[in-house]
Structures are given as C-alpha cells and as structure tokens.
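Moderator note: this is an archived Q&A kept for reference. The question asked for a predicted structure of one protein chain; the sequence and the answer are reproduced below.
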Amino acid sequence: MTGLDELEREVISCRRCPRLVAWREETARVKRAAYAGEEYWGRPLPGLGDPRARVLVLGLAPAAHGGNRTGRIFTGDRSGDWLFAALWRAGFANQPQSLSRDDGLQLSDCWITAAVRCAPPANKPTPTERDNCLPYAARELALLSEVRVIVCLGSFAWDAALRLLGPVRPRPRFGHGAEATVGRYALLGSYHPSQQNTFTGKLTEAMLDDVFRRARGLVI
C-alpha cells in the first residue's frame, strides 16, 4: 500500500468535525429529489489523479449533492462540469465529463484535491474545520513530490494554499490570474467554477482555459 493509499483510508474514515459529519450524513439520508434512487457516498473525499502530477488543483470542499453523492471530488455537479471540461481541453484529462467513480476518467500530470474534505453547510467551512482538515492536504502535497504548480480555485483555496506553504510574507493577494512563487511552487489563482460565477459571466470558459494553459506552460 502506498502513502497515498494510506492517506485515502484515513481521510475517508475521518470524523474530526461534528458539524460536518452531521451535515454530510444528513444530506446523504435525505437526498435531493433528483437523486432519490441513488446511494450517497456521505463521507469525506480523498484526492484524485496522477501520483506523478506536476499540477495540483485545490478546491474549497465537496458539494453536498456532487462529490458527497458520487464519492469523487468535483464529480456530479456544475462546478465539476466546468472544471473537467477545462482540464480536458488543456490535456490533463482523457474526457470532458466526470459523472461517477466508474466512468473511466483518467487524469494525466494533474491531481485534484480540496482544502476541506466534507461537504459543509452553505459551502462555508469554519476556520476550525479548515484547520482540522489542512494536515491532510499537507501530507498529500508531501507525497506528491513532482508537484510544482498549485491552481487555487477561489480565495478560500488560495488562503489554504498559503497556510500550507507559509507563513508567506508579504502575503500575495488573490485574484483571477494571480500568480505567486512560494518556495518551489507556483500558485495560480482562478475564480471558482461555481454557478454563482459561471452563470453571471464572472468566470468564462476562456478565462478558465487561460489559467490551465498557464499551468501547462509552467511545467513544460
């Protein structure tokens, strides 16, 4: 068993945060009407991808009826639809969709993870919940020894990455297209592909493509 396998087992069995445990399990019991016939995952989510990845994508947390339902990060929700399509266009994924854990998705030179591994109420983890979870990301990053670029989806992920790599002074500011060098890592900022951003046009496909094109360029 590899270190990543061991970490995955630990993540999946984690019950450190009572509020998140209660929320993810309640959501899995009650379900959304559209998925009433499905068995929800209802547990924390491990990372996903190529163990030799040079690019790591860091998100906020699983969606209640996305990853918390399917058991795979960014899988089965609108944010994931945008993310995997962009990864496919950039050559990091073998297909533009991620619908279930057994849909044949493969990532190349890319690893996807989240700052918080359980679906939080209103997509807002508390600082304590974030801090409880970040050690998993720190261990994951240490095991992914080839990673050189961290793409941060949203300001929460940007802040989490700086906490993982910090303390960093002066502290780089988040923005779409923001770029910072922290030790051996290049941090790239992107607006999160949430419906709040994609439906309003705050984030477009071209904008997301630009970020992953830059990530690709940094590891060539």
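Archived answer notes: The chain has a mean pLDDT of 97.
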